[in-house]
Amino acid sequence: MANPVFKRILLKISGEALATSEGFGVDSPRVHEIAAELQELHTLGVQIAIVVGGGNFFRGVAEQGRDMDRVSADHMGMLATVINALALQDALEKLEVHTRVMSAIEMNQVAEPFIRRRAIRHLEKDRLVIFAAGTGNPYFSTDTAASLRAMEIKADVILKATKVDGIYDADPVLVKSAKMFAQITYMEVLKKGLKIMDSTAISLCKDNNLPIIIFNLNRPGNIRRVVIGEKIGSLVSA
After folding, report:
1. Over 90: is that where the pLDDT of 23 sits?
2. Which of 43, 53, 133, 157 is deepest in the core (most CB within 10 A)?
3. Judging by DSSP bridges, how do beta strands 112-113 and 167-168 pair with one another?
């Protein structure tokens, strides 16, 4: 089996990736499929940290135009990410992968508080770490949380798992002739307004020269392929 090219990764998974076919809630079989791929990666000796979204339960930003305060909506979105993190932790521990959920909002009965040095120690001890509750602050997306946590734990790369094969110049679902970028710079992403991650997250990665790989999570084995260096998805770098 090929050796991994990354020692420590941060994987960003959207809440929708864990959802049922209706796009809501947690699809248990799907969560266990993702957990099995992560277990395979773990056996290669890769240190894995995960940031999971909460869009399958609640989308904070989508509530802006409605009768809800943005801060309240964002806090609800953060709590949704904790539900997903616990579901993923349960599936991983059934596969005997020692997993810790670390929350940016203190809730000691269900998750550890996020402490940077403790998170790094967990990774060094071959535990998989799931970061929940975003950054703990409203107005910041889970993409920004992923960039921030990746920098804090000194990850080699951010892997953003999506439902498309990479970054396109237009929505490939709507535009059949959309062109996929194998490689693109941070500045091009910002200038073209490509919606792969929000501009705060891209700027954070640019300022710290942290590469991002966007790939399709729905193709079985893709997480391992990215980590062993196969050329799939789109690379965002300087």
Report:
1. no
2. 133
3. unpaired
Query: Which among 198, 234, 173, 167 has a CA at the least distance from the CA of 53?
Result: 198
Find tokens 């120690």 and name the residue.
Answer: 121
Specify the pairing of strand 234-237 against strand 47-52: unpaired
Residue ranges covered by each domain of the chain:
8-237
Scan for tokens 């535009």, then name that residue. Answer: 175
Judge contact between 15 and 53, C-beta under 8 A: yes
pLDDT beyond 70 at 63: no
How far is 190 from 192, CA to CA, in rounded Å?
6
Decide which of 201 and 70 is more confident.
Answer: 201
Mean pLDDT of 49-53: 97
Give buried/exposed letters for 52-88 (b at 16+ CB in 10 A, else e). Answer: bbbbbbbbbeebeeeeeeeeebbbbbbbbbbbbbbbb
Cα distance between residue 175 and residue 205, in whole Å: 29
Topology annotation, domain 8-237: Carbamate kinase (3.40.1160)
Higher confidence at residue 95 or residue 62?
A: 95
**Which pair of structure tokens corresponds to residue 64?**
């802006």
What distances in angstroms separate CA 55 from CA 136, 153, 228, one per listed residue?
A: 16, 25, 29
In angstroms, the Cα distances linking 87 to 35, 53, 139, 148, 173 are 10, 12, 25, 23, 29
